[in-house]
Amino acid sequence: MPIIVNLDVMLAKRKMKLKELSEKVGVSTVNLSILKQGKVKAIRFSTLNAICLTLKCQPGDILEYVK
Amino acid sequence: MTTFKHILVAILIMLISGLITYYLKPNNPIIMVFLFLIVVFFIFNLIIRKSLSFKNYFTNQYNLFTTKVWHQKSYDIPKDLMFEKIIEVINSSDFKLVETNKEKLEILAISTITFKSWGENLYISFETNGNETIMKFCSATLFQIYSWGKNEKNYDNLLNDIENSLIV
Fold this sequence. Notes:
The complex is a heterodimer. By secondary structure, chain A is mainly alpha-helical. Chain A is built from five helices and two strands.
């Protein structure tokens, strides 16, 4: 799929662990791991909003379209 | 076709129970022993159902007292992650998680016994095929020679739950 999830990059930039993000966002670590690998079927705006709020970033920092 | 099969089995059950009541009288010791054996067998199955060790007993093709329904589904998610995911899905579904084996990657979930159902054991195992994880589902009835399609319905519901859980 040409959509790449850069969640691991943002986590590294913010020096945050997946577990910590999971607690702050309210999404299980399993779901975040699957999201990180880009294997989810869809992402809710509420989840994206919570992740951006916690990581202080834009949706474009997490999701990238590659041709 | 399935409806025809169900009707045929229902007629057979009525025929057998009719013949039994015609030929054997209520106080006949054969009936008492037969009923006692059924109850003992049911309790035995009820006790051992909550352990993964008896998976082979319930899923064995030679066990004529349980109905087995096999399904498999593949996802391009690593099996360790899929294992955790399925546990999460089962915990939020109508099934009750009974036992997990993280080394063998096996899960046992059961459905409760109700007036409509004798209960069902769901065994899930995980295998890797290239980048894909193949999940093998085996639904075995607790004490039922013939399945009326409840297993299929429960499997479809679980599959829907898995699909929905992939929307984060």
